[in-house]
Task: inverse folding
């Protein structure tokens, strides 16, 4: 499956994701897949409508079976959150209650701090059609609300889990905001680069491109600066050597004729 590398160590742990009365096995499966994407491993199910275990959930999980295999089943929300110290209720609706409300990004930072202090936490997510009941929200310490289009902020289970999980994962991820993907090649060192300069400049001299002695030094510097900025790999320089040779080859043959 694309994007899966089982040779690498996977992230795991994080806050519990508690799905309250999820309706479809497929939605549980896609939520588990989103959890696996973000290194979350604690899935709790409260009275899933179509029962548990679910073949449809396994099919929709697309390989995130380990999350489903470890999932725990509970008869009620109080039992599902009994061992947690901090609970967030994910909801987009105004409940008419005076409650502390945070974004997923803020909640992720708090949850990392809670877990670092050995204080377990979790997020309640309600049924697809109705969302959490007010009585369920009242059991949480904090409301978690995703800032989206006010006219259309409803999310499906997997979307909600992925947004929450993504913010959680990002806080522990050290991937640079920008980097150069080299594929199977390696950056060219200066020896390789200088050898290419010599090849290129030799052929340009031979072709007459740098025939003006006064302009030649600045032209050489401009070309060298251009390729220095490019940050070529060894493979790219081999290709450029071939390009220069290809362009100059016909001239040599014509001259010989």
Result:
């Amino acid at each position: 499956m694309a994007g899966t590398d089982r040779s690498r160590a996977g992230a795991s742990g994080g806050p519990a994701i508690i799905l309250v009365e999820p309706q479809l096995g497929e939605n549980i499966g896609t939520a588990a897949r989103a959890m696996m994407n973000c290194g979350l491993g604690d899935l709790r199910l409260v009275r899933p409508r179509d029962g548990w275990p679910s073949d449809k959930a396994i099919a929709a999980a697309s390989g995130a079976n380990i999350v489903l295999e470890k999932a725990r089943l509970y008869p009620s929300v109080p039992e599902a959150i009994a061992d947690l110290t901090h609970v967030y209720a994910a909801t987009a609706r105004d409940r008419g209650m005076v409650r502390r409300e945070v974004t997923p990004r803020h909640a992720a930072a708090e949850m990392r701090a809670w877990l670092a202090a050995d204080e377990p936490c979790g997020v309640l997510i309600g049924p697809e059609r109705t969302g959490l009941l007010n009585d369920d929200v009242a059991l949480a310490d904090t409301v978690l609300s995703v800032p989206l289009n006010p006219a259309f902020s409803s999310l499906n289970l997997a979307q909600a889990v992925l947004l929450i999980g993504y913010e959680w994962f990002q806080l522990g991820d050290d991937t640079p905001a920008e980097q150069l993907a080299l594929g199977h090649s390696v950056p060219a060192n200066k020896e390789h680069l200088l050898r290419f300069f010599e090849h290129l400049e030799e052929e340009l001299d031979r072709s007459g491109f740098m025939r003006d002695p006064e302009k030649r030094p600045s032209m050489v510097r401009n070309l060298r600066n251009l390729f220095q900025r490019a940050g070529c790999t060894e493979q790219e320089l081999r290709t450029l050597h071939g390009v220069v040779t290809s362009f100059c080859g016909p001239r040599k043959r014509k001259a010989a004729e």
The chain has two domains: 16-171, 190-256. The radius of gyration is 29 Å. Residues 7-11, 251-257 have pLDDT under 50 and may be disordered. The beta strands are 16-20, 43-46, 72-74, 86-90, 101-102, 121-125, 142-144.
